[in-house]
Amino acid sequence: MSSPHELSREPFPFSESFWNPVIAGAMRSSRTLHGGRSGGPVGAPSTIRVSNTMSAVNCPKYGVMKLDAPVTLPSVSAEAFQSNGLTMKGIAPVAGDSFVITQEALPYSPVGFGNAVLRGITVCKINVIAESDKFADCVDDDVDKLKSGGGGPAEILWKESGTGTKWAIVRIGNAQAPAGLEQLRVKEVSATEDWLRCRTWDGSAEGTHDVYVARPYTMRRTPYDGQTIDGKTYSFLLQSGVLTRHIIFSDSSFERQKITPPYLVNDIIYATTTPTEVTVSGTPVGLLDINCDSRAWAENDIYS
Predict the structure, then answer these.
(1) How many other β-carbons are positioned within 10 Å of the β-carbon of residue 31?
(2) Helix, strand or coil for residue 219?
(3) Exposure of 210 by Cβ count < 10 A (0-12 exposed, 13-18 middle, 19+ buried)?
(4) 3-class state of residue 168 by DSSP
(5) How far is 116 from 102, CA to CA, in rounded Å?
């Protein structure tokens, strides 16, 4: 008997007709797992073939597209669908929906196609809103770049410094930013806006870039100003630089309130990542003050 470390001299037990399909299947699995390249490195991006079906719109290399339907539907040809089922139509991106990053320029062509990264690490351009942003998402109809923010399916691994359109390396296909807490230091308390301008704070060092945080919903002006809710009419006034809330009751008496304790410059707050419906210069604010200090509107004066 031969040693277990020696090659067996016995005939190979499987026929060529059996073994060749096995090898072909393994190679197909390898290409699927490694982004279309047999023998690719572990962790290589997952790619998919995409066809640019956006009439009169050319998608650049490292551009952004949304996947639509397969190029060939099974109802048209089951055989063609099975052989080309992973070739998808590409359309204009939609904010909040999944997207792919093209790996080559794709001019409009219903019959041509190229590769795009569906999940994994890739190069792309990002409209950087704040240098502290760690995530990015697509923008309606923008095939050229992503947009940075407090959350999104693309994690920013590296980007050029500064704001505006920058080259970046991202990992796409991930969940939204984890709903952990960020410790921040208040730098500006706007008396008329629904946000706070802050800087990151690690307990000893303050960040250098502005981070906007939405106030808790009930402490915002916009949802209530001029509204009558449950027989109470709300209005807001500035008094000595402090925002006050006036509530007029059904008997015409009214109450003046202010936030207690007030937000002060250099206060420490904690914020979580979530949609807030608050914007700054048209840009959505993705952080919300969780109100650890139990701030609330408190009665200041009552008039009748």
Answers:
(1) 15
(2) helix
(3) middle
(4) strand
(5) 4
In the DSSP assignment, the letter for residue 290 is -
Contact 271, 182 (CB under 8 A): yes
Question: Rounded to whole angstroms, how far apart are CA atoms 219 and 195?
Answer: 10
List Cβ<8 Å contacts ≥24 apart for 72-76: none
DSSP H or E segment with residue 80: helix 78-84
pLDDT along the chain (304 residues), means of 10: 41 47 43 39 70 90 93 84 80 87 90 88 93 87 91 89 94 63 88 89 85 93 93 89 89 90 93 89 90 89 51
Tokens of 184: 């921040």
The tally of CA atoms less than 13 A away on the side-chain side of residue 57 is 17
Number of Cα atoms under 13 Å in the Cβ half of residue 168: 33
Indicate if the alpha-carbon torsion angle 133, 135, 139, 142 is positive or negative.
Answer: positive
Q: Give the pair of three-digit tokens for residue 271.
A: 């914020």
Q: What is the dihedral of CA 185, 190, 196, 201, to 10 degrees?
A: -10
Domain ranges of the chain: 46-172, 181-303
